[in-house]
Each structure stands twice: as structure tokens, then as C-alpha cells.
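Technical annex B. To support the medicinal chemistry partners, we prepared a structural model of the target in complex with 6-O-phosphono-beta-D-glucopyranose, based solely on the information shown next.
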Amino acid sequence: MPTDHSAAATNANPLHDGAANRPQPKACSLVIFGATGDLTHRKLIPALYNLAADGDLPPGIAIIGFARRPKTDDEFRKEMEEATRKFSRQPVNDELWKAFAQSLFYHRSEFDNDDGYHALAERLDKLDAERATGGRRMFYLAAGPEQFEPIISRLAKSGLNKPGGSSGEGWSRVIVEKPFGTDLESARKLNGVVSSAFHESNTYRIDHFLGKETAQNIMVLRFANAIFEPIWNARYIDHIEITAAETLGVEGRAGYYETSGALRDMVQNHLIQLLTLVCMEPPTDLSADSVRDEKVKVLRSLRPMKTAEEVAKHVVRGQYSAGSINGQPAPAYRQEQNVKPGTMTETFVAMRVLLDNWRWNGVPIYIRVGKRLPKSGAEISVHFKNAPGVLFNRDGVDGGAGTNGAGGANVLVIRIQPDEGVSLRMQSKLPGAALRIEPVKMDFQYGESFGKASPEAYERLLLDAMSGDPTLFARRDEVEEAWQFVDNIEQAWHGSTASGATSEAKADGSAPPLCEYPAGSWGPKEADELLDHDGRQWRRF
Ligand code: BG6
């Protein structure tokens, strides 16, 4: 698709524009709890380095790793350098790294030790005096979720939840990583703990899918183009599919995954968030609350599945058995390290979701997510209704591959990752004397049109939090509504919404089955049957 790089075309992207036009945030102290953990190594420090390399990070920033193991600042810098060289999106430049490393510091403490927080407060005051951080403090909870409460209560006890310094330019914000609770009850409790220390406007609940460039583009695609909105409803749309597939298995995270499963790990947050962006009404403006108000309305329209029968009818859960991916043998989930023998944890979910509102009445939204599938990728496909079959499927007109059948409908595909882009499938006449019709694809690819790679989701989100923009973070009510929907399903599967029940069978034996699928396949046959039943098929990608 040709690209118009004129000012008008660029201005058509309000979300992107907002971020690009806003001034660089003022320097702050960013304290990362869980500094020796996986997330810090793989995502956070590489994201911060890339922001620095692109000139987007305020130079005076102080990044303080907070963790239990003894370590000097230099040792921490060395460790972070190794991680960044391994995981950074762009190659590490030695000079740039040297400058960036000067903003890294290490603070050793137990998470529940009051003295450790008092010492941290003193250190932050000292950094304020030495650097340009001006009492601005950001606390990133990247430690295990069991540490969230002890950390937040100690931040409050030591006064670190209040703006620092005396200039009046200080602030104190908290970023909470997922999982934000494990069910509605625990999420409410955690929300209570967070809100007792931080105002909602200073609370940033991360869902990293919202930071993906392509997820941000959903609103732009829908609301900055006049052609989609009039047909974006039950009158013209037959169904929607949202898929997130991974070839990876649990990769040594079984300890967490056994208490989560695919439904909590991916559906409650990432996939439901994508659904809200696709299905929301246009907000009145682009302020964080206007956007999130509309998303919450979608969540409130989710038709609940109140009984085990309804769950069995609309949801398929699966677990991978041994198989092969790209010619390599892959073990069964039950053979992975730290997985309970006979575990009932699901590694795959397919479901039919219905929204009870005017726009989407009767339009099924199929969600599919799984580990150890044949390909990695996430996409949303919007399947339009067929054209009326009055012209091209008549006798004598060869419609080829289903002119007006299932294969003939227009499909708009939003590729979240990889190969980020958007394509539209439509029908076209095959050149020649005969009237033959074939589907063709109009394709827009980010890389090709804009000539640069999309930043990592964490880059955008960290910068937004520093700038005080919560639009791409989940609000309290969003998280709670999503849990409410998911809890019914957990209840039907395990007889409890407690995370400890995830790997257990439901005691009374009334749970819908856990279906098996070989690693490297597109999930259990029951997932195909879910769509067969509605006369549809999953889109293969
Ligand atoms: C995380 C899940 O939130 O998202 C992981 O915990 C999953 O299980 C990951 O692999 C997928 O994110 P991405 O950005 O790598 O597609």
C-alpha cells in the first residue's frame, strides 16, 4: 500500500502524535523492585537503554534496582549490560552504554524491611540533590505478586508514596506489573492496598499488549478513517477472531503458570483488552478517562457464563501433549519441570464471547490463545458479511474459491505481531475473458511504510508513566470487570477461583473436559468444533 508521509497523513494518528509532540518528561528516580528478576533483565533495562539511545529518556534520570541479593552499583551495571546486549531491540553502542550506565544504581534490601525503605528514602533525597530528579519518584513493582502488598505498605510507611522534595514539582507514582490479582476478590483486595497508598491517578497497572504499536493503532484505524465506523457493527460484521499464538512452552515459568493457566495469563488481560479496543464506542476525546470509560462499557456488556453448562458450550480448554515444533520434539506440558503430576492447568483456550449491546448484538467474538502452537503471532480478524448473492454466484458465473461463500467475505486483519500491519481481503475479477472471481489482499506493513521498527511496548509504557499519561494502562474498574467475567469460567473448571485450584480437577467431577492437543498443532479438535457448530472456521495464519 503506498504511504502518504505528508503532514496531514501523520496528523491522522492522534495517539502517536500525542506522544511524539509532548515534551520529554522531566527526569525522575525510577525504583525497580525485583531488579535481579527476569522482567528487569529481558524487558525493563533494555527498554530504558533503547529510550536513551533514541534520545527519549530524560538524561538526569536515576534508575535504582531494589532487590535482596548483595551487589554493588558496578556489579549491577555489569549484569544489566550483559542482559541488554542479549535482549536489546537495537545493538548496544559502547559509548552510549557507558553514559547510560551512570544512571544505574543498586539498593539492597528485603522487601519487608522498614530500614531498607528509610535508607532508600535517604538515597533518593541524595540523588535529588545530585541529579535533576526533583522529588519525582516512580516505583515499579516487578517483583513476585506476593511482594506487592509488603512493598506498597512499606512505601506508605516510609512516606515514599508522597511527592518528594520541597520544590512542589515532585510526585510519587506506582507501576504494578501483572498479575493484578488472581481473581476478582484478590484484585479488589490489591486495589484496596494500592489505593490506600496511591491515588488512582498515580497508579499505573501495566498490560504490555496496550503498549504495542499495533494495539494503539486499532483506535486510529477505527476513528481516524471515515470508512470503517459506519460498517463496524452487527449489520455488516459477521464475526471477529482474536488469536494470540506462541510456539514457546512455559520456559521454566511453571511455578507461576501452574497457578495461572492460559485464561488468567493471557485472556483476562491482553486478549480482553484487545477486544475492548476493537469493540468500544468512539470516546468523546483522547483523555485517559474518556478512553477507559468506553472500554469499561464493553467489559460490562460481556455476556457472563453463569453455569458450567454455559462454560462448556462456549469455552474449550486444552493442554499440550508431546509433539513437535519446526521439526524439533517438544515434551508434553505434564513433563515440563515443576509441573504437578496430572496437572489440570490449561495451556490453550478457545472461546465464543458475546456482547450484549446494540452495536454487537449477535456477533460472536472468538478468542483463541495457546502455547506450543505451530506459529507465534497475534492478530485480530474482522470478518464482514457476504455480499448479497444476486450477481456473481448465479449460473454461468464462476465464483472460483467461494465468491459469496465463506471464502468470499471481506476480512480485515490487524496483525499485532510479528509482521505488524493491516490487510483487507476483497474479491477481484481474474484477468481474462471469463468472469472468474478470486480473493486478493491489500496489505499495509509498518516496516515497509514507515521504514523503521516499532519500539518495544515497555518503551512506550515507561515513557507514558514518566509523563503522567495513564491512557494505555488499565484502570481499577477495567481490571475488576475482566476478573468478574473470567471468574465464572475458573469456577466451572475448578470449583474455585483460587489460583491454587488451577492445576486441580473440580472435586465433583462436573467440570467441562480438559482437551489434549499435540504440541505443534492448532489446539484440540474441540476448538475447531466450536466454530464448526456456528458454520465457521478459524482463520489460519
Ligand atoms: C505475558 C505472559 O504476559 O505475555 C506470557 O505471561 C506470554 O506467558 C507473554 O508469553 C506474551 O507476550 P509477547 O509480547 O511476548 O507476545
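Notes passed to the chemistry partners:
DSSP finds 17 helices and 17 strands in the chain.
Residues 211-532 form a domain with the Dihydrodipicolinate Reductase; domain 2 fold (CATH 3.30.360.10).
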